[in-house]
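Schema walk-through. Below, the input block comes first and the output block second. Nothing else is stored per chain. Lengths vary across the set, and this one has 97 residues.
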Amino acid sequence: MTTPSIQRPTTTAFFVQAAISFGLSLVALVIGIIKLPVGPWERGFLALGLIFVVSSAFTLAKCIRDRQEVEAVTNRVDKARIDKLLIEQDVFHPGQV
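--- output ---
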C-alpha cells in the first residue's frame, strides 16, 4: 500500500568530482591572493574573507541538509499516523459513515 521513498546515495564519481572542483577552486583563489600585487594587510583581508566564505558555505549546506532530514522524518511520521488511522477505520461497520 505504501511506497517507501528510496534515496539514492551519492555516487563515488560525483563525490570525487565535487571534492576536486572544490579543491581546485580553493587553490586557484589562494594562488590569486598570493600573486596579487597588494600589501600584506590587503592580502590578509582577502584571505580572511576567503576563510569566512568557505566556512559559511559549509554551514549553509549543513543547515539545508538538516532541514531536509527533519522534513523527511516528519513526513514519514505523519504518513505512518494516517496509515494507522486508515487501518483502524472499519468501513464495513454499520454504525460508521
